[in-house]
Design a protein that fits this description.
Distance between the termini: 34 Å
Order of helices and strands: EHEHHEHHHHEHEHHHHH
Largest sheet: 3 strands, parallel
Strand content: 5-15%
Strand order of the largest sheet: 1-2-3
Bound molecules: tryptophanyl-5'AMP
Shape: globular
Helix content: 40-55%
Structural class: mainly alpha
Length: 333
């Protein structure tokens, strides 16, 4: 029955430790989907080359992210877990799909506009092309579902457009993938500015909580979290983005639904909400932190695990690429 399982792919960039936004928006679904689906998960190191990152930092971040994801529950026995650059077909398919993506489509990507506005000194072609490489990641594995946060939905739409275009110009080749979003926490917001997304590239470190942050830092960041002017604790993302964000984070870490979260804070004040959320996050992250330390103590073991994953991923990727080359008319031996 193995063959009947739907395929899942997702990836995360190794640009430093991940935030609880990444965790709530994507990682929790990635972990949960492992039992039911045939999952492939990657550390997207090629995507990180779009920012100016030192080789030593990329190397360190890649291993750290791999350890964090495994500690958070990505199980290399259940899923294929690997580093993107170890499977050269990602770059190859990326090039091919460039020829199936329109310049105007890529130019409309809001993440490209945001990132180029934030770093005008390094608007490289890779940054522009980034969503096409992402399409290659996904389409290479005949993926059905892609667990991601809301900020990746536009990229997923582009992947679908590219897949459909390739299929109609050649013949049906790629699956057309679907995004899978969590019910709550599709866009976890910054603690210091609840109108913005929580992001590890935020210049204010009080805006985000990293999965590896120390408990005292987590407590401090929540204590300083920006709330709203009245004192009601209700879930209303538009009117009360700060409080709703805290409730979302609480739901995710306490493992309860939103109704239950709201009930638990009935008649309580904001200070109580902030400390209770911080405690839930600290407790929820503790096992990840401990698991991370253990995995990082055996880097060779980690490298071997990733190499095995890359070999498994390559097997599928090779089969897809041989189909792609044939359909394109590229002469093979
Ligand atoms: P990245 O590394 O920026 O983020 C990883 C995942 O975390 C989600 N996310 C959030 N979810 C909720 N609230 C937030 N504040 C928040 N911040 C981030 C993202 O939506 C993402 O799911 N391009 C991708 C990596 C990638 C990829 C892929 C993803 C490369 N190839 C193929 C899916 C499929 C990225 O930069 O994600």
């Amino acid at each position: 029955m193995e063959e009947c399982k739907k395929r899942v792919f997702s990836a995360i960039q190794p640009t430093g430790s991940i935030t609880i936004g990444n965790y709530i928006g994507a990682v929790r679904n990635m972990v949960a989907m492992q039992d039911e689906y045939d999952c492939l998960y990657a550390v997207a190191d090629l995507h990180s080359l779009t920012v100016d990152i030192a080789p030593a930092a990329l190397r360190k971040n890649t291993l750290e992210l791999a350890a964090i994801l495994m500690a958070a529950g990505i199980d290399p026995e259940k899923s294929v877990f690997f580093v993107q650059s170890q499977v050269h077909e990602h770059a190859e398919l990326g090039w091919v799909l460039n020829c199936y993506a329109q310049f105007g489509e890529a130019r409309r990507m809001t993440q490209f506009k945001d990132k180029s506005a934030k770093a005008p000194e390094n608007v490289n072609v890779g940054l522009f092309d980034y969503p096409v490489l992402m399409a290659a990641d996904i389409l290479l594995y005949m993926t059905d579902y892609v667990p991601v946060g809301k900020d990746q939905v536009q990229h997923l739409e582009l992947s679908r457009t590219i897949a459909e275009r390739f299929n109609s110009r050649n013949s049906p080749t790629f699956k057309v993938p679907e995004a899978i979003l969590p019910k709550f926490g599709q866009k976890v917001r910054s603690l210091s500015d609840p109108t913005a997304k929580m992001s590890k590239s935020d210049s204010d470190p009080n805006g985000y909580v990293l999965v590896l942050d120390r408990p005292e830092d987590i407590a401090r960041k929540f204590k300083r979290a920006v709330t709203d002017s009245d004192s009601k604790i209700i879930y209303a993302p538009d009117e009360k983005p700060g409080i709703s964000n805290l409730l979302t984070i609480y739901s995710a870490f306490a493992g309860v639904d939103m109704d239950e979260s709201v009930k638990r804070f009935e008649g309580r004040d904001y200070a109580y909400l902030k400390t209770t959320v911080a405690d839930a996050v600290i407790e929820g992250l503790r096992p990840i932190r401990e698991g991370y330390e253990k995995l990082m103590a055996d880097k060779d073991g980690l490298l071997k695990t990733l190499a095995v994953g890359a070999e498994k991923a390559s097997y599928i990727a090779r089969r897809t690429m041989s189909k792609v080359w044939r359909k394109l008319g590229c002469v093979r031996p």
